[in-house]
Amino acid sequence: MSVFRPIRQRIEQIQDLNKKVFYAEALKNASPPFSFWLQKGGTTEQALDGYTELNRSTFHIHVVGRNLDEMDRLAEQVRSAIISMQGTVAGGYLYERVSIQDTSPDIKDKDVNLYRRAYVVAIHWQEV
Fold first, then answer.
1. 3-state secondary structure the chain
2. pTM for the complete prediction?
């Protein structure tokens, strides 16, 4: 199981995003609103005596809406859902620290007439 799966499941609990959280490559022809994600990196933390059991993964999560209000409302719900993972155990992982490192400016995709907000999320986790 992917460390992102429990986070995706938490986001899908948002009414308008139920079964509408996609890996970016699987996004074709999705109807708004929806969310998509990409894993941008991952490392295992090191201490002086070697590698630890703590891992760090970084994701980009995008929230897309038909208008600015819808995108803004859903983006805030997604942000809350992600942050709520901190300190929890789900899917065989302990989410020790979850942080949203950066928020992009809101984007209007003129080609498709949709609004999008992107978050950069860092997750510190270990298997349990």
1. CCCCHHHHHHHCCCHHHCCCEEEHHHCCCCCCCEEEEEEEEEEEEEECCEEEEEEEEEEEEEEEECCHHHHHHHHHHHHHHHHCCCCCEECCEEEEEEEEEEECCCEEECCCCEEEEEEEEEEEEEEC
2. 0.90
